[in-house]
Amino acid sequence: MNKFPKDFLWGASTSAYQFEGAIKQGGKVSSIMDRFDEQPSYPKGITGFKEASDHYNHWKEDVKLMSEMGFKSYRFSISWPRIIKNKEGEINKEGIKFYNDLIDELFKHKIEPIVTMFHFDIPDFIQEIGGVCTNEFTKQFEIYSEVLFKNFGSKIKYWLTINELNMFALAGQIIGVVPSDQKINSWQLMHHLNVAQAKAIVLCRKICPSAKIGPAPNISTVYPDSNKPLDYVAKLNLDMVRNWVYLDIVCRGEYSPIFINGLKKMGLEITITEEEKQILKNSKPDFIAFNYYSTMTVKMPTEESLKNTKKDQQQGLSMPGFGESVKNDKLEKTQFGWEIDPVGFRNTLREVYDRYQLPIMITENGIGARDVLEEDGKIHDNYRIEYYEKHIQQMALAIADGVEMIGYMPWSAIDLVSTHEGISKRYGFVYVNRDEFDLKDMKRYKKDSFHWYKELIKNNGENI
Ligand code: BG6
Question: Which positions are tagged coiled coil (predicted)?
């Protein structure tokens, strides 16, 4: 029996603000990400997103490289501030043309475009009215969604709503989607995003009925740190706030009573209108896309133990009385401290499929590393090959277990700028020749993993 379906969507991912650069070209208006590096909270000594990998001026060459690797799909995000100019919804025709040209070029190379509608780059005109923290956000996202579906709906088969909706609530200030001086109720913010997502799904059904649409959160299995029963309570708690609440709302149409009750225990609540309840009930997705980097291990915290750790999308999540993430000494780590857990990937795939029984698409998975460009123009990233080999083997086992999968689009197709750790944390199959502050020539170089992935796609993963 084949390990992967015949028409499996092998490819890779990027996001607009981390990849395109050209923040002042093509009629794009400003976004919070354009100046994230100027915020006091942004780490010192690393680049921001102004130039990124200059994909905006290299897109044809970049698609050619993807085609050479044999990509069947390419997941990218459309930049909201390239499409809409202001809160009146005025359209930037140049932005529409840029993405139409990109999509057509992908089709020319037989690559299926998989479009993320929104990947962190909030336009300034939205931030000025409160960003993701107000109800107004849902109205603005609806205006934007309609423009996307009307302009690209005839071509796009797979839509992804909001990238890592859960990370807006859990690590919003670290990834820059919430300004560090803005006071927020993370759960109300999450609710606005859930409503925005639901409205987009409803609109998609109306405007492009033959398209498929799904969410794209960051999901990972949560292990209890020990066999102490209380650590298992912490596991259930963090599983809920890290994973299930975001998928339950879109797949089941409501929040779990345990979640709502848990908020009350923390002295928090979310305001949900009757109209919103109805929208949330009637916006089921066609598939689940999710990003997977590693697993999480938790214990029941004490006051003292909560004072530690570095926090971001993959580490350090803790909640008083609820759970605290701790290091898993059974797992190796990347150069940037993220744990590596290929078997956890199989576990996560199984849990998600078992719970919702919808087809799954992986929209991110990968290893950030300090790759070195050798004098002969080669990049020997065997650690990346090893990372992918192990994860893809586990994905094959998950499929053999019975998980229904549509595709695998790891992070990232080509080097781009990390959310908060600069360009030196590279993820691509292709090296982009620039440093944190020296833009050099932005030339593209194929890494060893490029050739490895090409071979794997050619064999539809049978050689893994
Ligand atoms: C995901 C995001 O959280 O992880 C990406 O969707 C991000 O935008 C990726 O780049 C890797 O994280 P980081 O922080 O290393 O860039």
Answer: none
